[in-house]
C-alpha cells in the first residue's frame, strides 16, 4: 500500500473539476486549476465522491481493485490470441504475458491513483477484447458481427470522451481493422462501423461537456486549440503542452531509446524500463526478416489472425501517441500489450522454443527492473483516516468573497472544495494561455461584480516537520509582485498560515487580504 494519493494532478484539478461540476462553479470561477479546469470532469466525479465520504485506505483499495481489472481484460485478449495453442500452453502463456503487461512501469507507477490513465485503459482493452471475439468472422455481412464491432467502438469512445488522450487508441483500434485478413471492402465496412461506435461513445461521455464549453466559450476543447476557436480570454495556441515532442527526425526515429535512457524527456517522473526499446528492436527485426524472406522467395510465416490486430494496435497507437502527445504516462493503454507484442513478433523470426526463451529473458528482466525501482511514484503520503482535509478561515459573506490563486505550481486547486461553494476563485499565474489585458479585466469584473472582500490563496511550505519561513516569505514576495502586475495590492500584514493535509502529509497555505490598486 503506497499511501494516500498526492499526485500533482489531484492537487491541481481532479478534485476541483468534480466539485465545480456538482456545484455549478464554472459560472463563477476563472481557471483555479489552470487550463485543466476545463477538462471533462465526469471521470473525476466518482473519485471525488468516494474520497469525500469514505476512509482513505478504502478509497485506495477500491481504486486498486478497479484498475486491477486491466489484468482480467488483458488475460482475455491473450487467451483469444493463443486459443489454438496446445492445452499445456493455452493457459500458462496468456497468464504470464498478462502478468508481464501489468508489471510495466507506466501501469505500476499509476496503480491506485486518480490520474485516469489506468482507468481509461479499461475501455481500450475492453474494446480490443470485444472486437477480437468476432475477429474470425469480420468478413461476414452479419448484423451480429457488425453490432459487436459497433459495441467495441462505443466502449472505446466512452473512454475517449472521459479522457481525450485516450482518443489516440480509438484511432489505433479503428485503423487496426484495416489489417484484418478480409477483403478491402469488408475492412472499410468494419472500420466504418467501429468509427461510428467511437463517435457514439464519445458523445455519451464527452458530448455534454463539449457542448457546455461551446456554449460558454465557443470552443469545445477550451482553452486548447484557441488558434482554431478564438476566445477573448485566451492567446492563440494549439495543443498547449508541446515540449515533449521529438525535436528532430532523428530523435523521432530513435525515440524509444531516447526515453528509455532519459525518462524525463517524456514525463516528470523517472520511469526506468527497457521494454519499449526492446519492442522497437524486435519490430524492425521482424520487418527486415520478413522483407528478406519475401525477396528470396522463402516461406514467410503469417501472424495468427487476431495477433495482427494486437500488433497493429500497438504500432499505430505508438505512432499516433508520438505525433499527438509524446507524454509517457499516456502510453498505458498500449504498454500493457507490449509484452504480448514482443512475444508475437519473436515467434515470427525465431523458432518457437527460441522465441519463448528470448521473450522470457526480456520480460523477466524488464519486470524485475520495474519492481526494483523502475516505476517511481507520482506522489503519495502516509495514510490517515481521511484523504483530504484542510483548515479554512471563517468567511462572513462567502457569496460575495473572491479568492485569487497566485501560483500554478505547487497547485492549490484541491483546496477549493474545502471552501463554501459560493466563494469565487480565479487564478493569477498558471499554465492557462492568458490573453492580456482581457484576462486581467475579467478578474477585475469578477471582483467588482461580487462586491465583497478579496483574498489571496498562496502556497506555504513545510520542511523537516515545521513551517519553512524563508520559503513562505519568498513566495509572498513573488505573489505580491504577480498581484501588482494584475492591478492588485497584497496586504502582507494580514497574512496567516493554515494547515491542510493529504493523508498525513502537511500542505500549508497562506491566506492574505488583497485590495485593488488605485
Automatic annotation (TrEMBL):
Q: Which residues cross the membrane?
A: 56-82, 94-112, 118-136, 143-160, 166-183, 190-211, 274-293, 305-321, 327-346, 358-378
Q: Does the keyword Membrane apply?
A: yes
* Keywords, in A-Z order: Membrane, Transmembrane, Transmembrane helix
User: What's the domain of life for this entry?
Assistant: Bacteria
Does Transmembrane appear among the keywords? yes
Name of the molecule in the record: Glycosyltransferase 87 family protein
Organism source for this protein?
Paraburkholderia fungorum
